[in-house]
Amino acid sequence: MSRIVLALATLTLLSACGIKGDLARPDPLWNREDAIRRECQAQAERNQQQDPRCAQYQTGAQTTP
C-alpha cells in the first residue's frame, strides 16, 4: 500500500514540472493557412496581441506561391 502512495506522490510532483507561463500553440496539421488566417482575424476582433505569424497576412506578403 505504501508503494502505491509513494508512486502517486511521485507522479503528482512530476506532473508539476514543466514549462511555466503560456504555451506556444502549434500550427494545425490540416488547412494550416486558413486556420492561421482565422485565428489572426479573431485576435484582431478581440483587440488581442497579434501572434507573430499574423504579420504575413497584415502586410499581404505570402511565403508560398
Shape: elongated
Structural class: mainly alpha
The arrangement of helices and strands along the chain is: HHH
Please give the alpha-carbon distance between the first and last residues.
63 Å
Give a quick account of the main beta sheet: strands, pairing sense, barrel closure: none
The number of strands is 0
Our estimate of the beta-strand percent is: under 5%
Radius of gyration: 20 Å
Please, what is the average pLDDT?
77
Indicate the low-confidence ranges by residue numbers: none
| Residues in helix, % | 40-55%
| Helix count from the secondary structure assignment | 3
What is the topological layout?
Elements: H1 2-15, H2 32-45, H3 55-59
Structural notes for this entry:
The chain has 65 residues and is mostly helical. It is built from 3 helices and no strands. The protein has helices spanning 2-15, 32-45, 55-59.
Short note summarizing the structure:
By secondary structure, the protein is mainly alpha-helical. Helices cover about 50% and strands about 0% of the residues.
